[in-house]
Amino acid sequence: MARLTIKDISKSFGTGFAVDSVSLDVEDGELVCLLGPSGSGKSTLLRMIGGFETPTAGTISIDGRDVTRLPPEKRPTGMVFQSHALWTHMNVFQNIAFGLKLRGLPRAAIAEKVEGALALVGLAGYGGRMTAQLSGGQQQRVALARSLVLEPKILLLDEPFASLDQHLRERLREEVKDIQTRLGITTLFVTHGQDEALALADRIVVMRDGRTEQIAGPSEIYRHPKTEFVAGFIGSMN
Ligand code: ADP
Ligand code: MG
């Protein structure tokens, strides 16, 4: 049984369909990259999986349980957005601890989990810093830690490094891959960077106009790209 099962999911915002009858199974521990041009429905699909958007039609199940109508906090998912949305009036520790406090964990357990999450993202010792004092990359690391500390079964990353420079982006995506492998956490990674998808993914979902154009492993996509979007990029690499 797949960890995540998406069946004929659609989302209309009144005009056209942002997501149009998408179906997808994601296995336990798999890293799937969603790739596609701007406006192809990647964020909307991810937001529906995370519970931030209600589908117009279709169902989403996680570990066999229908979560289609559940709010984000009732789902075993954690999401990191392109703009990290950290709380600037709180320090790093408080940002990461916030969700654990809502869950009513005792203080010692919170401290231990926050330290663990900080170490995982390479920010051990940064708990006392204000988030505004951190670099862009460090802020996205905190956002990642804030998600991971709640121990989600599925990690949803929506272009978390898009605003960072190329070098940092490459480093961070390697770190994400490393963390993902170590934790064995099922992950959906939205990107419009083809190089990112080819480097990271177990499987790639290529989207266009709200639909899936191709779902395959990176080597298959590389050798037999169905879409101009990917083919154009691969052509430019050779
Ligand atoms: P991507 O993440 O691939 O760039 P999006 O999922 O953000 O694509 O957008 C898909 C389509 O849905 C776009 O045409 C976008 O304008 C539209 N859309 C997304 N969110 C909304 C919204 N809240 N209201 C109206 N239209 C939206
Ligand atoms: Mg988007």
From TrEMBL:
Transmembrane segments: none annotated. Keywords: ATP-binding, Nucleotide-binding, Transport. The keyword Nucleotide-binding applies. It comes from the Bacteria. GO terms for biological process: quaternary ammonium group transport. GO terms for molecular function: ATP binding; ATP hydrolysis activity. The keyword Nucleotide-binding applies. Residues 4-234 form the ABC transporter domain. Belongs to the ABC transporter superfamily. This is ABC transporter ATP-binding protein. It comes from Aureimonas endophytica. The gene is afuC.
